[in-house]
Each structure stands twice: as C-alpha cells, then as structure tokens.
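Page 42, continued from yesterday. The earlier attempt failed because a stray header line got pasted into the input along with the sequence. Redoing it now with the clean sequence only.
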Amino acid sequence: MERNAVPPAGGPWHSPGWPIACVTAQFQLLKARQRMSVEIVSGRNVATTNNRREQIGWYFYDWANSAFSTTVVTVFLGPYLTSVTRRAADAAGFVYPLGIPVAAGAFFPYMVSLSVLLQVLFLPVLGAIADYTHLKKNLLGIFAYVGAIATIGLYFLDGVNYLFGGILFLVANLSFGASIVFYNAFLPEIASPDRRDAVSSQGWALGYLGGGLLLVANLLFFQNAGSFGVSSDDAVRISLISAGMWWAIFTVIPLLALQRRDPVKRIPAGEHYLTIGFRQLWETLRKARHYPQTLLFLGAYLLYNDGIQTVIALASQFGAEELKLEQSTLITAILMVQFVAFAGALAFGRIAGWLGARRAILASLVIWTTVIIGAYALVQPGSPAQFYLMAAVIALVLGGSQAISRSLFSQMIPPGQESEYFSLYEVSERGTSWLGPLVFGLALQFTGSYRVAILLLLVFFIAGIALLVRVDARRAILEAGNTPPARV
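This time it went through. Structure tokens are written below.
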C-alpha cells in the first residue's frame, strides 16, 4: 500500500470515484498505523515494528556478547587453553578426559564442536517454548547471565586444570548460543521487511565495535602486563574475566529497551511448556517440508557458516602454531578485523540494498573461498604482513555475510515461529559451528598439518555456494506467508 494516494491526471473532479478511493486509502493507512503503534489492550502488549529506541537497545546485545566472541573464543582462550592442556598432557602429547585419548592441540576444537552438538539437542526445544510464551526476553537475560558468569569463572583456569576450563567454556558457549536464538528472534518484530537488512547490519556492526574496543583495552593490558606487575598468563585470565563482566553489564540495555510481546500461538490445554517444546520441535521438523526454499537456504547457510565460524574460532591457533606468529601479532590482527568489519558490515547493508541479499551473500562467499586458498598456498610462516592482509580481506566480508544471512532468513520464517526456526539457524551461528571444528581437529590429529586442516574448510564454502545459487529467495518469503521487500 502506498503512503500517499495520487489523484488522476485530470484532477479529482474528473473522477467520480476519487473521493471514495481517497477515504479508503486513508482508512487503510490508519489501520496500518494502528497496527504499528503501541497499545495496551486487556493487559496485552502490541509493540511497534520500527521503534528506533527498541532497535538501538537490540543492537546493544550484539555489543555486549561480542566481547565473548572476540576476547574469549577468537583471541585468548584457544591458545591459552591449549597451553594448559599441553602442561597436563603425557609424553606423547595426549590428555585423557573421561578416558578418551585426545591430542592436546585438538582439545579446544573438540570442545567447540561438543558445545554445538549440545545446542542441537536443546536450542530447538527452547525456541519452541519461547514461541508459546511471552518469556522470550526473560530467556534472553537468563542465558546471557549464565554465559557471563561461566566466562568470569575462566579466571580460575590455571595450572593443568584443562578439563575445568573446557567445562566452563562448554557452559558459556552453550548459553551464548541460546541467548542469540532469542535475540535473533526479535528481528522480525522490530524491523519491517524493507528495513531488515539495514537493522541486522547495524546490529552486527555495533557488535564488532564493542568487541573491538574491549579488545583494545585487553591488548594494551597484555602487551604491558609486566608494568602492571602481572604475568602473561595472569593478563590472559584477567582479559577473560573482563569479557564476562562486559557481557553482563551491557546486557542490561537490551533488557530495558526490548518490549515484551504476546505469543502468536497459545499453549493447548493440558500441555506444559517442556512437553510443548518437544512436541512443537517435532511439528516444526515435520512441517518444514512445506517450505522447501527456506530449507534449501538453511542447508546452504549451515555449510558455508560452518566454514566461517571455524575460521573465526581457530584463526589464532592457526597463526600461532602454523605461522609461528607472536601472541601480540595475533591480537593486533584480530583487533584490526573488528574495526574493518564494522565498516564492512555497514557497507554490505547497502550492497544488499543494491544487489539483493542473496547476491550480496554469494559475492562474500567467493571472497571467502579465495582467502582459504591463499591461506593454504601463499601465507608463509613468520610473515605478519601476509597474515594482516589475509585478515583485512576477511574483515571486509565477515560481518556482511553473516548479517545479511540473518536478515534474509528472518523473512523466510512462518509468522509466530521465529524462535523455533532461529534455534535451528543458531546451531551453526557465530562461534558455534560443529562440523568445521570437528573436521579441522581430525585433520590436525591425523596429519599434523594445519595447512591441510585449513584447506579442508574449502569444501564448506564451495558446497554452500552450490546450494545458495539454487535458492529462490522471493519464493521462500512468499511460501512462509511474508511480504517480500522491494529487492531480494
């Protein structure tokens, strides 16, 4: 519907039906505005779609949790937990959690993989429960603070207690993924279809800025640890606790800004939240076949995002172990990524507006594929300049490929099932991919080569591109019962 009706060329007096058409148009516009406004009807909240205050509050959860992604997952915990695991290993370089032989260098990738396998079991059920209740914001807060507290507990990771660190990371990463399910599920509620790419990109950009600012502080602290009278290990542990505190403090902003909305669906009589969660999960999986284009996109996303998340989670380990780079070099490079990615995410929001979301994602995946080939064939040990160049190229497409994927998927979801579908989506979201780290860890354990391990990630990007080119995005949006934006 157009916002302003335009009279016939000859003037309104030349068209007898024009007054009726004008009144009809104004009535439709009034109804649309009423739907978009905040009302209190019998205690029920009907919230606005494009409320700027709520959107800004939503952005700040990306700002809050990105500290975990950058400081903990991407930079400090992988190398530090690996060093703790090596101190606990036997002469052959193995540790034995639950009696299972695990190479010390593969322990962290395995923990990343295990945390996501647990998410596959729990997140879809949590998503179904959220869709039947008005507790989406509450669940976001609960899991955010469980994750933040577990991250703060990593301060006590020291000596040879690698298993303690692995368990805390497991809890933190599982909680991180759960909170993101509910966070993402707010996107269709706070942004209209034509605004969704921009809103998603701005949230992602603010996340990179927030994570980058904390990483600046941690970088300065780590590089000057001696002047503060602490060891390098102590500086790492203090950096880990700072990420948990950052996550906890800034989560207050979205919890205050986001509005509670009544669920589209009501829980049937005689059902309980837990049982309806499992029942609805089964129904979602059973009915998903009615949305073949959505499933095709989800399959493509699960593949290429596995590759992206593996690069994010294990880039520091690759740089330290294969390229023999100093920890300060790795931190500086990843710090640069945060600020370049801030601009890249905003730029891809505009690119998606010009080319359409699907073409923008495809362009980013071609660049990702080129970077993987370059990392295998061209980047040499002891060359910070080459590593910086590779990191800069990744940064340009990192936020865009993820932010536009999120906004496009949000338009392919049937109304009232946002949390359910985003729980399926989240199993391979930032820092939570499972197959990529598993392949990386197995390749490392059996070949001993980080280059072979990184090259194997190429299959995820190529397979993702092959599926994505077959997705009809407009058809997927229509199949889900939604209105496509002007350019898909």
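Notes: The longest strand covers residues 39-41.
Reminder to self: strip header lines before submitting.
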